[in-house]
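Example 3.2
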Amino acid sequence: GVMYVSVRPSAQDVDLGVTAPEEKNKNSGLLLDNDEVLTAMEPSLEGKFIPVSVGSGGKKKGSLISEEAFARSSYGLNISSVKLPANLKTIGGFAFRNQGIPLTEIPASVTSIGSGAFRNCPSLTSVTIGSGVTSIDDWAFLMCSSLVSITIGDGIKSINEDAFAGCPALTSIYYNGDINKWVEISGLNYLIASSSRKLYIN
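Structure, written as tokens:
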């Protein structure tokens, strides 16, 4: 993935025993291109390179660490924007809880979104969920008070009844599949229970 960040004092690694991604100067920013690293920006415009997962011996894996990996309290991060790597497989429980992320695109490589993964992200306004995601767990987007629209890929099989609870601004739901696949998804009654929510099927 590619992301440009302003050069403040240069972007830095979170100290987890891994090497920073390849960096190339381009214009007034940095060009980041490394699928094993999550690139995030803090409100101060300070860039962060974070390994998507670290196993025993510092070995990288293609999935986010679960249990609050990038929650607001973890590593002192206050993320205001994020780009998820294209090889990501899972987003673990409470991974981005309480973060100030305005817009998120879930790559097609991701298959599941864990419990509370984006819980209480008050700046989150829209979410695009890739076609590889088959399930969205409980509280995944709980209390995302500014969430207005979601786009759901046609690979989804189940959406927990509380996945989008406490999202009063959610009015637009887009589904990238046909009506026959839509009606087979479990959990729909809760997702479209509110009369203010409009469904658009591709």
